[in-house]
Design a protein that fits this description.
- The protein is an all-beta fold.
- The protein is about 0% helix and about 40% strand.
- It starts with 14 loop residues before the first strand and ends with a strand.
């Protein structure tokens, strides 16, 4: 007898638009994992607060029901990553921990962490020794998944539309430029200032 063809295997990601119509193969800007064989995706323009995942060990197959609304659309999920073996994601307002459960049906849950700051752009975070680093509207912070610590007190004026030590403040109209990166023991902070210049500060 011929095998059964599963019709609920879609390219990432299947979603619905504002009218309720199905949209297949909607590209998303963020894919991360694996965790227990799952690849996760976020950044759906139709459902910006949703997290998506594939069938375990089948990254090309994303069922239409494999999604979870983690936050309201206005909060918007911004980035996802693996912190050791723990999948996590940032919204604009906070950090979430993701928990896959593969016993029986695949289920994914998410909980808020004690970190109550989110990030301003999809590349405004980095992971390295000392934990997870992010750029929020009021500064650069560090967390290990718990309560965060602001580490940018010395340059706080740049986040408050003030000039500091000859440097113009961050221009928040260009969030895509804002990036954090870690190399060796240094944390690099890139931004565009209000004078139109790209700046990189090193901690």
């Amino acid at each position: 007898a011929a095998g059964t063809v599963n019709l609920n295997h879609f390219q990432p990601v299947p979603t619905v638009d504002d009218t309720g119509a199905t949209v297949l193969a909607q590209p998303v800007p963020v894919l991360f994992g694996p965790a227990n064989g799952l690849i996760f995706g976020l950044g759906d323009p139709y459902r910006p607060g949703h997290l998506y995942w594939c069938i375990p060990d089948q990254p090309d197959h994303w069922p239409s029901g494999s999604n979870l609304e983690i936050c309201p659309p206005s909060e918007e999920l911004m980035a996802g990553f693996m912190a050791a073996s723990q999948p996590m994601c940032f919204s604009r307002e906070r950090l979430y921990a993701i928990y896959p459960n593969l016993s029986g049906l695949v289920e994914v849950t998410a909980t808020t962490t004690a970190c109550r700051r989110g990030i301003v752009g999809r590349h405004a975070f980095a992971i390295g020794l000392g934990g997870i680093y992010g750029v929020s509207r009021d500064g650069i912070f560090q967390t290990a998944g718990g309560a965060e610590d602001v580490i940018s007190q010395q340059i706080f004026r740049l986040f408050e539309d003030q000039t500091w030590n000859g440097y113009a403040p961050v221009d928040w109209d260009f969030p895509k430029v804002i990036r954090l990166a870690i190399s060796q023991d240094f944390l690099y902070f890139q931004y565009q200032d209000t004078g139109g210049n790209r700046r990189v500060l090193v901690y």
